[in-house]
Design a protein that fits this description.
This protein is of the alpha/beta class and 243 residues long. The protein has six helices and eleven strands.
Length: 243
């Protein structure tokens, strides 16, 4: 995610509740801060906001934020029943913008080749996400750091390959799961704070994955992405695949 705050505000027609800092990153890791877009009802009006959240959802009932490192993704098939996600999917849905994401393919000799998945036309991705607020009991009332905002990205089975596109064969070769993308119309429904039919919204997002992902492309990239200390535009530069 390397887009500037101003670009995100313009793209999503969102506003800030408070000033945020989102440094560009070409190697976002679990527990890193990421931008999210959400809608809230303020004085009976729907307001769309851009926030910064920790990647890895921390449920409100968690004893400490460490659980979030295991909550970076939420399986769409079970998100309505899982204790960590079922309240958030009812009323705390968000969109998680990204420029692309990485997957790894393992070769016959156990070597691994990283790949970068992104829209073929260079436009950004928007994933269906959930967010949650967690109160740190060790901090005093009024401490601005007492409340942590965190997020998780919904996933689904990778669409099976079909005659209409080769991209799904490539994605299946990389992983059996994909983060759930949304087009703009779906995002409008997903973010609506007055929408209360969570099962229908989850199915709406799941139903659109094939249409949105059909416009993706997959490029092999260098192994430097495997080290979180590496962070530069060079990480997404296509290279010749090892296998």
């Amino acid at each position: 995610m390397a887009r500037a705050v101003g670009d995100l505000l313009a793209e999503f027609d969102a506003r800030l509740e408070e000033e945020v800092d989102i440094p560009p990153s070409w190697n976002v890791a679990p527990t890193d801060d990421v931008p999210i877009v959400l809608e809230r009802l303020i004085d009976d009006a729907t307001v769309r906001q851009l926030h910064v959240a920790r990647w890895g959802l921390v449920p409100s009932w968690a004893k400490d934020p460490g659980i979030g490192a295991r909550m970076i993704n939420a399986r769409s098939e079970s998100v309505l029943e899982k204790p960590a996600f079922r309240k958030a999917v009812q009323s705390r849905r968000c969109a998680v913008p990204a420029d692309g994401y990485y997957e790894w393919k393992q070769g016959a000799d156990k070597s691994k080749q990283p790949y970068y998945v992104r829209p073929a036309e260079g436009s950004g991705l928007v994933f269906a996400g959930l967010y949650e607020w967690w109160k740190d009991p060790s901090k005093a009332e009024g401490d601005p750091g007492r409340w942590m905002l965190s997020t998780s990205i919904l996933t689904a089975d990778t669409p099976p390959p079909g005659a209409e596109s080769t991209i799904f064969g490539q994605l299946t070769a990389l992983h059996d799961r994909v983060p759930l993308p949304m087009d703009r119309a779906t995002m409008e429904h997903w973010l609506d704070p007055e929408a209360d039919d969570a099962p229908a919204l989850v199915e709406l997002v799941r139903a659109g994955v094939k249409d949105v992902a059909a416009a993706w492309r997959v490029d092999s990239v260098g192994k430097e992405v495997g080290n979180v200390r590496n962070n530069s535009p060079q990480l997404i530069r296509p290279v010749e695949a090892l296998f």
